[in-house]
Fold this protein.
Amino acid sequence: MFKIIVLILFLLFMYFVLFGEKRAIRVTVLLYFTLLSIVFLSGIAKITDKYHLYDGPVMDGGFQSLGDWVGSFSFLYILPSLVIIAYVSFRIAKRLVAKTWLRVIIYLLWLALLLAISFISMFIFTLIFYGFAP
C-alpha cells in the first residue's frame, strides 16, 4: 500500500510541476507515468508471487529478479523526471534573469543540483520498492 501511495504522490508532484504547461503535455506526461506505474506494480506483484518473496521460503533468483526489475524502472522514472524538472526550471530562470552570463551560471548550478538529486533519488527509489533484501 505504501508503494501505491508513493507513486500517487509522485504523479501529483509531476502534475504540479507541469501546471503551467499546455494541457497536451500534462496529459502525455501523466499518462506515461501512470502506465509506467501500472506495469511496474504489476511486475512487482508477479515477481513476489512467483518467487514467494513475502511468504517464504524464497526461491533462488527471486531477489535478483526483483532488483533487476526495480533497477530498470528507476531509470524509466528518474531520467524523464530529471528532464521535465530541468525544462520547467530553466524556463523559469530564463524569465527571471536577464543577463546571459548569470543565466548560464544559474543553469549550470541548477543542473549540478538536479544531477545530485537524481543520483540520491535512485537510492531512495530502490529502498522504497526493493527494500533491504539481500
